[in-house]
Amino acid sequence: MARAGLKGADNAESRRLAEETIKSNKRDKAKLIDWIEKYAEKENQKATTGSSPKQ
């Protein structure tokens, strides 16, 4: 949605808010991907061995 807002931005404030939203979303997406990569391996091991990792 922010990308659509950026395309239709008719003033500097609208453009700035859309750009900030896009940057924030990219950072959040990267954090989520890092988290998934970190914990997916543990869950995959747990599923294949039938045991849970120590916490």
SSE topology sketch:
Blueprint: H1 2-7, H2 12-49
Description:
The chain has one domain. The longest helix has 38 residues. The protein starts with a helix and ends in a 6-residue tail after the last helix. The protein has 55 residues and is mostly helical.
Which keywords apply here?
single chain, 55 residues, mainly alpha, 2 helices, rod-shaped
- Quantity of strands, as a count: 0
User: What is the rounded Rg?
Assistant: 19 Å
Largest sheet: none
- The total number of structural domains is 1
Mean pLDDT: 84
User: Which bin fits the share of residues in helices?
Assistant: over 70%
From the spread of the alpha carbons, the general shape counts as rod-shaped
Distance between the termini: 39 Å
Helix-and-strand structural type? mainly alpha
Order of helices and strands: HH
Task: Give a summary of the structure in a few sentences.
This protein is mainly alpha-helical and 55 residues long.
